Amino acid sequence: MLIEVWSDVVCPWCYIGKRRLETAVAQFEHRDAVEVRWRSYQLDPGAPTEPTESTTTMLARKYGQTPAGARQMQDRVEAVAAEEGLLYRLSETLHVNTVDAHRLIHLALRQGGTELQGRVKEALLAAYFVQARNVADHAVLREVALGAGLDAAAVDDLLAGDELTQEVWSDAEQAQAYGATGVPFFVVDQKYGVSGAQPVEVFSQVLERAWADAHPALQVVGGGEECGPDGCAI
Predict the structure, then answer these.
(1) Domains observed in the chain
(2) Is this prediction's pTM over 0.90?
């Protein structure tokens, strides 16, 4: 079973959704057959690579709020995140571009498959939300990527150029083709879509349905004469 997840590393609901999906998968009877692949989606492709404001300031400007009002919005999200064991520091985060972070996630997939990609994705989310680090800064990205297991030379080569940028854009185009209007957005076996950080129960229901579709139970019509281990009825 393939689960593709479109998300951004600066999307607070994406990290929450990741935890809820992980809980559902851990409870799933066929969890060993589940593969999770991370897809790219930038909430703000025009965000600066050199931060000029905090996310609190950006939210206040975007939604016509006072800084205090924006902080209250962040407080509510932090409370939800805490229920999933995530200790966010949203008021300390910066409004930054994430294209390079996404390129590293693609590099991880190419270098080590979905297992390595998952480690890099988790490390980038934790760096931004839990550690309040600048995930547009190449020094930070390099440290996080190497800590998650990426090859140093490959990371340096990637960050020195624009390789895998097209893959980032292609992911976003695919999300739009699926009808996604935001993230997180989950697609199971290219058949079932789940929009948003849904409760664990919703993910569990979708996993069960997708598995049943891929492994239909045989419908047996019985009642006729037959032979068995004890012989044949005459």
Answers:
(1) 2-232 (3.40.30.10)
(2) yes
